[in-house]
């Protein structure tokens, strides 16, 4: 889960424009597929490919029809520096593990977006000197993986740092300019009134730089939320903030608005069920919102026991569910009907043998029925009830 994890000068513009062009060529050479429709990138749920017991994306795709994944998170190196890593430890430049995951997804007709930032670690916007160097670091990620989409997850403590947010928004604008067609989402904290003071300052920074992404998404969880009604209320309030900040009408604001939820039990003990997801999905589609995603696929499976002892887990949802239940809502947002799960076939009942009799004598190999089970004698026996003792003379052959 998020909290258990996580303007150019002319010469610079020319240099980065060239880098952007090279990135697309190199990306395609490295195996990038033709871009999916933007609706799929807008629906891509978060997946940690190296942490939190990563699930098999092939299994999720087969079970749900999902085609896009939001891989998380790219950070600055833990030891310092302005170069991209996975989780602060695995350099993007030498990565093969995440590339293998991407190859698997693309091999099945899917694609990925990469999320940068998150809740933990040091962000590149904090570590790099300016927007240009921040963008250059992210361009390495786009080039390496041939990306068609990228997500700026601007959270604590980075979004409390004015210089860091200026770098991130500036970098996002540069990447958008130099990678034509790149889908860019910006994700930030949600509050009951839409987003908090720092979220509003981030929007003002985007306005001042003349940057408009495909969407600004809020995360309405971990802030005293209680089910879908509180989330849709926050989305309505956030829409008003977008209108007042950018001068948009309501429809334009919704067309640039996104939802990023948390499935199951949140870090603060809120619960969001499948029914809550359906309600928010209905709200998002009826208002023509641009994005519907969630944290995370690593958690889209039932804990054992389902409530996980009242704790929040990074590897399961802590609510009763089938595997990948929540992923199906992303598929629906993309405009696709998830496949109907194949029901487990009901086995053909075995016919019952002659009923056991207390007075009859049985020898090894004789078969009887008792308590809707068939039983086979292991040795000579009389008046010993089948199943009365696991060490008794009867071998259970199953229901009948």
Annotate the secondary structure layout.
Layout: H1 10-29, H2 38-43, E1 46-47, H3 57-64, E2 68-75, E3 85-86, E4 90-91, H4 97-107, E5 111-118, H5 124-127, H6 131-145, E6 149-154, H7 162-178, E7 183-189, H8 197-209, E8 215-219, H9 228-246, H10 250-255, E9 257-262, E10 264-265, E11 271-272, H11 274-286, E12 291-295, H12 327-333, E13 361-362, E14 367-370, E15 373-377, E16 381-382, E17 394-399
Parallel strand pairs: 1-2, 2-5, 5-6, 6-7, 7-8, 8-9, 9-12
Antiparallel strand pairs: 2-3, 3-4, 10-11, 13-16, 14-15, 15-17
Helix pairs in contact: 1-6, 1-7, 6-7, 7-8, 8-9, 9-11, 11-12
A few lines on this structure:
By secondary structure, this protein is an alpha/beta fold. The chain has helices at residues 10-29, 38-43, 57-64, 97-107, 124-127, 131-145, 162-178, 197-209, 228-246, 250-255, 274-286, 327-333; strands spanning 46-47, 68-75, 85-86, 90-91, 111-118, 149-154, 183-189, 215-219, 257-262, 264-265, 271-272, 291-295, 361-362, 367-370, 373-377, 381-382, 394-399. Helix 3 links the parallel strand 1 and strand 2 (68-75).
Overview of the structural elements:
Helices cover 35% and strands 18% of the residues. The protein is an alpha/beta fold and 400 residues long. The strands form 4 sheets. Strands 1, 2, 3, 4, 5, 6, 7, 8, 9 and 12 form a 10-stranded mixed beta sheet that branches. A 3-stranded antiparallel beta sheet has the order 14-15-17, with no helix packed on it. Strands 10-11 form a two-stranded antiparallel ribbon. It is elongated. The longest helix is centred in the first third of the chain and has 20 residues, at 10-29.
